[in-house]
Design a protein that fits this description.
By secondary structure, this protein is an alpha+beta fold. It has a four-stranded antiparallel sheet with strand order 1-2-3-4, covered by helices on one side. The two termini are 14 Å apart. It has three helices and four strands. It has one domain: GTP Cyclohydrolase I, domain 2 (2-Layer Sandwich), CATH 3.30.1130. Bound molecules: the ligand Nc1nc2c(c(=O)[nH]1)N=C([C@H](O)[C@@H](O)CO)CN2. Keywords: Folate biosynthesis, Isomerase, Lyase.
Length: 119
């Protein structure tokens, strides 16, 4: 199955970081998400209930960021990958998180993970 639903540059302003100053104020993160799924049913039904709804995934990412506070991007990515694989009809997720305010000299920095649903 190689069908894909994606999200690009989803901005979430949140508290994240190792340093004390990062715990005092929200900063922007940008999420890129690639989700492998199967379009077969939706292509027949033409019903949004049969797809991985990118709006619902985006809302879930925002809600999780608002509900949790961690230091590392890696921790947040692992949590979100687990949520996406368990709550949506996704067999594999690639999640990239960019933190543009972290390194002054860089346009952006960040991390990427790929996780598959256990079969
Ligand atoms: N691989 C990572 N490196 C760093 C992280 C991170 O989450 N993952 N975080 C920081 C600090 O919070 C940094 O963003 C402050 O500028 C440093 N390195």
């Amino acid at each position: 199955m190689q069908d894909k639903v994606f999200i690009r540059q989803l901005q979430v302003n949140t508290i994240i970081g190792v340093f004390d100053f990062e715990k005092q104020a929200k900063q922007p993160l940008f999420f890129d998400v690639d989700m492998l799924t199967d379009f077969a049913k939706a292509a027949q039904s033409d019903n949004v209930d049969d797809v991985v709804d990118y709006a619902k995934v985006s809302a879930r990412i925002i809600a999780h960021c608002e509900a949790t506070q961690v230091e590392l991007l890696e921790t947040l990515a692992e949590q979100l990958a687990t949520i996406i694989l368990s709550e949506f009809a996704v067999s594999q997720v690639i999640l990239r998180i960019s933190k543009p305010q972290a390194v002054l000299e860089a346009q952006t920095v960040g991390i990427e993970i790929m996780r598959k649903k256990q079969s």
